[in-house]
Design brief:
Chain lengths: 119, 114
């Protein structure tokens, strides 16, 4: 069964430094997608970045990059030049399989990592 | 921001009462989802819909039912609320037509069952 593991319940980083949030996944499928979401204290879920299992290059979106190591089944989120506004809960999620009509692209989420950025 | 509105945003109810949460979207996306978020569990899928009147169960569907009579509305019903259903409920939408199929979330509904 597919599973997402985030082993860091909480992390601290100094402002302007880079930080890596770990995510490992388990799936027997060859086709899957990996997502990272941010949840600030206000509660909304904000999409950050996506990596497809067949993508050869690591995904990047501004200060966010995804360190995708397929053989190790890891999809770590790297935030460069941390800002105070990056303090939030971060969730890794996986969609298994292809987008078939009635499959719906269901997401499996990890338990999250709470990131605190220190000034 | 994706046009997703969840209502109510907060609700307190008593055990045994029926509760309906509404998700309304203005994006005309085909897929809609209901998740619940509990401490230590991340988000877990309750039910999802892949079209009008087309729904299916997710990981934690017991005690919940859904309905989708229009593209824009997806209702989640707790037929007889229990304290274990105290949670934050999120609606999400997505549209197929690409590998990503990113899900965008509503602001959430905080439900307390006393």
């Amino acid at each position: 069964a597919q599973k997402i593991t985030q082993t860091q319940p909480g992390m601290f980083v100094q402002e302007k430094e880079a930080v890596t949030l770990d995510c490992t996944y388990d799936t027997s499928d060859q086709s899957y997608g990996l997502f990272w979401y941010k949840q600030p204290s206000s509660g909304e879920m904000i999409f950050l970045i996506y990596q497809g299992s067949y993508d050869e290059q690591n995904a990047t979106e501004g200060r966010y990059s995804l360190n995708f190591q397929k053989a190790r089944k890891s999809a770590n989120l790297v935030i460069s030049a941390s800002q105070l506004g990056d303090s939030a809960m971060y969730f890794c999620a996986m969609r298994e399989g292809l987008m078939i009509y009635n499959q719906g692209g269901k997401l499996i989420f990890g338990q999250g990592t709470e990131l605190s950025v220190k000034p | 921001d994706a046009g997703i509105t969840q209502s109510p945003r907060h609700k307190v109810t008593e055990t045994g009462t029926p509760v309906t949460l509404r998700c309304h979207q203005t994006e005309n996306h085909r897929y809609m989802y209901w998740y619940r978020q509990d401490p230590g569990h991340g988000l877990r899928l309750i039910h999802y819909s892949y079209g009008v009147k087309d729904t299916d169960k997710g990981e934690v569907s017991d005690g919940y039912s859904v309905s989708r009579s229009k593209t824009e509305d997806f209702l989640l019903t707790l037929e007889s609320a229990t304290s274990s259903q105290t949670s934050v409920y999120f609606c999400a939408i997505s549209e197929p037509g690409g590998a990503k199929n990113i899900q965008y979330f509503g602001a959430g509904t905080r439900l307390s069952v006393l």
